[in-house]
Amino acid sequence: MSTHPSHLPRGPTLPAHRLPDLPSRLAIPDRPRHTGAPPAAFNTAPADSVRHTLLTCLHSHRWADRVAAHRPYPDLGSLLAAADEAAYDLTPADVTEALAAESLPELPEGTYEAAHTALNAAYAAYEAKFGHVFVICVNDVSPDEALNHALTAIRSRLANDPEDERLVVAEELRRLAKGRLADALRDAGP
Q1: pLDDT digits (tens, 9 = 90+) for 28-37
Q2: Domain ranges of the chain
Q3: Residue 42 in contact with residue 73, Cβ under 8 Å?
Q4: At residue 123, what are phi and psi to the nearest 5 degrees?
């Protein structure tokens, strides 16, 4: 077994999976664009189809089931509020399930090698301490500031104890799910 940080065993509560090579990857999702109303297709689609869409936003089966069960939604705001409410009730097992499916989007083109190095070190330290990938929502941060915001946040969150970090992670997952859901509905279009 390699001793590279991305090959170290994860915590006992999290499924083992290997982080991708990080020099070109960063756990900062694309910025969501919240526009439009939920398409009628979301309200009338088969439950399996809706669950699949929801699981691409947050990989928690319980969360997806709760959001899908309350259809139809009169508007985007109602749907996003329901998604938010369901995410507030994530159990530790739900958070673990969601974290296991999180991916690391690519860094923007032109990112300096020093940023890659700093992120590799921060990710390795974070994952060694908490046993899971670092997640952060940057919806309210300008694209020019996202990388710096993520580095500052990861360094700050490394000071958290595991229980406090679980609360922060649950909040970040909630924010990510809401943004991804808005994007999925926008992309589906009316």
Answers
A1: 444 444 334 5
A2: 5-185
A3: yes
A4: -60, -45
Instruction: Quote the CA–CA distance of 27 and 104 in Å, as a whole number.
Output: 4
Q: Which fold, 5-185?
A: UraD-like (1.10.3330)
SS3 letters across the chain: CCCCHHHCCCCCCCCCCCCCCHHHECCCCCCCCCCCCCCHHHHHCCHHHHHHHHHHHCCCHHHHHHHHHCCCCCCHHHHHHHHHHHHHCCCHHHHHHHHHCCCCCECCCCCCHHHHHHHHHHHHHHHHHHCCCCCCCCCCCCHHHHHHHHHHHHHHHCCCCHHHHHHHHHHHHHHHHHHHHHHHHHHHCC
Tens of pLDDT along 144-185?
788 888 889 999 999 999 999 999 999 999 999 999 999 888
Tokens of 43: 């309200």
- pTM assigned to the model: 0.75
Rounded distance between C-alpha atoms, residue 21 and residue 158, angstroms = 21
